[in-house]
UniProtKB/TrEMBL annotation:
Residue ranges of the region described as Disordered: 394-413, 509-533
Lineage of source species: Bacteria, Pseudomonadati, Pseudomonadota, Alphaproteobacteria, Rhodobacterales
Protein name as catalogued: YARHG domain-containing protein
Tagged with keyword Signal: yes
Domain YARHG: start-end pairs: 451-528
Length: 533
């Protein structure tokens, strides 16, 4: 049996004593580069931005690189990328860019207003650019707006925009409050100060607006946790996303990680503690909205509150709660339960039930996943399932606890059949303590070639073998949208319009046959395996 008293302070003590702060270094003006591809043709209009070689081997993972300090006018580089220009008859025209491109960022920040203008422009273009910060690179201050706007744009039965951004373990993603730059020649005229203040308020309103934007699944592009870190960190300092807790609270995917764990009770305890700290509505709280005095506090403060809460005495006149932690395997699944989380009063506690896939036995140290891209590491893949069940108090005169609570598998099956069951799912990162530094996570060996595979192991049936001779991301896109086209789908994206056209289209919600639906599901599975965007 795990002794849970005192364990919380041991887990989180290293982080509570340390806050990571820093400042942005001077940098050259930013340049947007189009990098060599793996054979996919580039539009002619991007020639002014194109490099013949990758700046470093790690940039083979990128289609685009934005490098340097953001300045007024950098939006024009992104307009060039999309062939965007004024037209006397149509107002504006644009040629588009590859739909599944990866934009790597390396910038200390700069002009926040320009960064937000780029974000708005990319949204207008339905760009679908996934954003990454590679190991050793920095994306700080204004650059974080570009990072957070990263998304996967999916056009099918509907147009979906899904958050897709990631950092590697030694990347530096930093937030701080914006500042007003007035120069060093003061005092300044009243009108100049008022204009500068008004501009700052307008920019703050734009950031606030961005913090409320959601993708198709309802996920925030900028979580309240990140928005608060930005506002409360002084301009001369920097709050870096450098722990597991920061990444989870900020919905920032971490890639290049081999998720290794020992299948034991400590793992179940860590997962459940993390879910409790995330405080996303899974656990109930009898009195008030939650256990945190300051729900948006920085991670070290949250962990201090959590330790105080979990280690506080809970002896209510001989009323007892079990705090056992159990784990077992059943049908190639790991089941676990960590009992006795507080519920806000003496009337009941809460038991955390965990389930995830594994073909290994309890006690083994195994690799649970390899997080190579944002799809693997983010909310697109949520392999760890958790439910919470009430635990009622025991005393010398009460009936024994129900037998099903002694087996994690039986407990899961029983609670799943009740009306109170609510299932939440989480990424693999939740298997690590929130206090673990990202730089200390087990690292995947780098690949020599582009990180996105180009062939799938899942065979796909096709009615046009001459048009799509091999299973690639491009061929899967073609097959998927060909089905929609044949059923009268009206394409909103430029790529779909160019390839299929909209002549004779009549719907945005085509009705598919059973066979077409089965084929569509097969295509989507292959796209997931390839990491297509």
């Amino acid at each position: 049996m795990i002794n849970r008293h005192g364990i919380f302070g041991q887990l989180f003590a290293p982080l509570i004593c340390v806050m990571t702060l820093g400042g942005a270094a001077p940098a050259l003006a930013a340049d947007l580069y189009v990098l060599p591809t793996d054979g996919r043709p580039l539009p002619d209009h991007v020639a002014p931005l194109t490099l013949d070689t990758h700046p470093e081997p790690k940039h083979k993972a990128c289609d685009l690189l934005f490098d340097g300090q953001i300045e007024d006018g950098d939006l024009d580089q992104f307009k060039t990328l999309f062939g965007y220009q004024d037209h006397p008859e149509y107002g504006t025209i644009y040629d588009g860019f590859n739909d599944d491109a990866v934009l790597c960022l390396s910038s200390p920040g700069g002009d926040l207003n320009e960064a937000l203008a780029i974000v708005d422009f990319l949204e207008t273009m339905d760009s679908g650019l996934e954003t990454r910060v590679l190991s050793g690179d920095t994306c700080a201050s204004a650059c974080t707006m570009l990072f957070l706007a990263g998304n996967y744009y999916f056009e099918g039965e509907s147009i979906d925009r899904i958050v897709s951004r990631s950092i590697e373990p030694t990347a530096r993603l930093g937030f701080h409050a914006p500042r007003i730059v007035m120069g060093n020649d003061g005092p300044f005229p009243k009108e100049q100060v008022e204009n500068a203040y008004a501009r700052a308020v307008r920019i703050a309103a734009k950031v606030f607006d961005f913090s409320h934007r959601r993708d198709t699944d309802g996920q925030a592009f900028m979580t309240p946790y990140l928005f608060t870190r930005m506002l409360e960190t002084p301009p001369q300092d920097m709050y870096y996303i450098d722990t597991v807790g920061d990444a989870l609270l900020g919905d920032v995917a971490v890639t290049g990680v081999e998720v290794r764990a020992t299948l034991d009770r400590q793992l179940i305890h860590t997962i459940c503690s993390n879910a409790f700290i995330l405080d996303d509505g899974l656990f109930d709280w009898a009195f008030g909205s939650g256990w945190k005095r300051h729900p948006l506090a920085p991670l070290p403060e949250i962990l201090r509150e959590f330790i105080d809460l979990m280690e506080a005495p809970r002896d209510y006149e001989q009323i007892r709660y079990s705090q056992d932690v159990l784990i077992e395997t059943q049908d190639n699944l790991i089941y676990g339960v960590a009992k006795g989380f507080p519920g806000g009063g003496p009337y009941y506690a809460q038991d955390c039930l965990v389930r995830f896939d594994s073909y290994d036995e309890v006690g083994k140290t195994v690799t649970l996943a390899n997080l190579r891209n944002a799809w693997d590491a983010g909310r697109n893949t949520l392999p760890v399932e958790i439910m919470v069940a009430p635990q009622y108090p025991q005393s010398d005169h009460s009936e024994p606890a129900p037998k099903h609570t002694n087996s994690p598998h039986a407990y899961w099956q029983h609670h799943a059949s009740t009306e109170e069951a609510r299932l939440h799912s989480y990424p693999w990162l939740i298997t690590y303590s929130m206090a673990v530094w990202l730089k200390d996570l087990p690292r995947l060996a780098p690949r020599d070639a582009e990180t996105r595979p180009r062939t799938a192991s899942i065979p796909i049936q096709t009615t046009t073998p001459a048009a799509v001779p091999e299973t690639t991301c491009d061929s899967l896109w073609f097959q998927r949208n060909l089905i929609f086209h044949r059923n009268g789908y009206c394409f909103g994206g430029k790529r779909g319009q160019e390839v299929f056209g909209n002549e004779g289209c009549h719907t945005k919600s085509p009705q598919l046959s059973a066979g077409e639906t089965a084929q569509m599901n097969q295509i989507k599975s292959a796209e997931k395996e390839l990491g297509c965007r």
